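Risk register update: the risk of archive-format incompatibility is retired. Evidence:
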Amino acid sequence: MAAEAQPRAVTGMRATRRWFWLFLLGFLVLHVILAASIPLSGDEAYYWDCSRHLDWSYFDQPPLVIWAMVPFRMAFGETRLAVRAPAVLSSLLAGIFLLGLIRRLGGDEREASWAYVALHAMPLFFVGAFYTSTDIAMATAYLGAAWAAVALAQGERRAWWGFGLAAGLGFLAKFPVVLVLPALLPAMWNREMRGQLRTSTPWLAGALSFALTAPVWIWGARHHWDNITFQLESRHQVHAIGLKYILEFVGANLLLATPFVAVALAIAWWRGWKRRDPAWTAALVAAAMPFVAFGLVALRERVGAHWGGPGLVVAAALLALTPFRGRRALLIAGLVMSLGISLAAGWVLANPERLLSVHWSYRGRPTRISTKKLAEVIGNREAAMRVMKRLEPGQMMASDSYTKVHLFAFLSGGVLPTRLAHVRGGKHGLASLYWYPPGELRGRDFLFVTEKHGVMEPLQKIFASVTEDAPIEIIRNGEVVRTLRVLSCRDLLRPEGVFTRLGVEEANGEG
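Archived output:
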């Protein structure tokens, strides 16, 4: 009987492995279809335009996701799929890394499938799996580093290299990957592991990790450390200590994970502490750190709703390995809610004009969230084409909106020459101010496109003349749903500080 049971067990394991990879492939196909079908956002177009101006790094973003876009653009052209391929690849790697982590914690492909389902039961990952952002790449690297930390806690010396590689590449995706470092502490409880610190392996792996981050420091040294200043100072608005932003952060994560999955993750995380296993403790610390760190930050300032994402991804593995009564029901409810939220968001993006008459707003992250914002997604391709028809020979389009600048360029197939004019403040999306020296901009003519008021006066200070042309009106069902002002700006006299930051310090020094 035992001899007969062994072949059955082997056959069952092979079938489980086969189904896991088919399962992963099925989600990959779904992600590709969604990536190729849904219109690009302004932020995604921003990354795309950055990939046309390759640099060591960028003002407000590390370079990994931007660099990764280049080979896909070469393969697929200037398409949605090419722009979103780094996200699709990251979500695939996340599934593979989950399998590695789960095997380390005593599971197999069956639990890895559960974990991947749990991820897709969270709108944060369901959408992030095909939406290009620095977050999905960082979360995948964070998961890889957590896997390596668990291996280190189990005495696997080679895992130092995996941790260093994941942390270094994760830093090139988004800086908060450093929050995975405390996951190394459980490994240090082991005397044998502490002894490894007297060998060269951890230090060489650390040197590799730091070397991978070099592009960020090279760019910073070339540009007066503007990228580091932005991350540490410029983007922060500190307030008095309070609970408002913590409650906002928690509430947003309940939506991004769905309350059902959030409850399941919390139960799995809490039960994990009872194991008293250094490997499990390493995973638990990795899952908790984003919430602990950003929860503390939220005492003084608003934090991004999605910043806890890396912790949710690691926690999905813990959930898959922690069966309890009601787990399946919670996951099914989460999947239904996730699908509902995603379908609702897709419907809104496909039919934004139907909600323009609904007045609702909330002063949230990053700025006021309002139904009026939906007007910004209506008629972008039409507007881009109409701008192209108006351009005179040698003239370029400019805007105070970085999303318009890069999205209109993408929608024109990369043909429309666009430039950002930083005339109304704003802290994000300023990478293009480091692409063009003053000499390439001085004396040029622009069509300035905006939906804001108050831009005429600052433009008149830097151009020889500024006149207002007929606006571009986007009409739906016989009604004007969006109006873009068009200003004809002649002879750019002083581009420094508005169209470019290159040469600003030198110009100030000469003055």
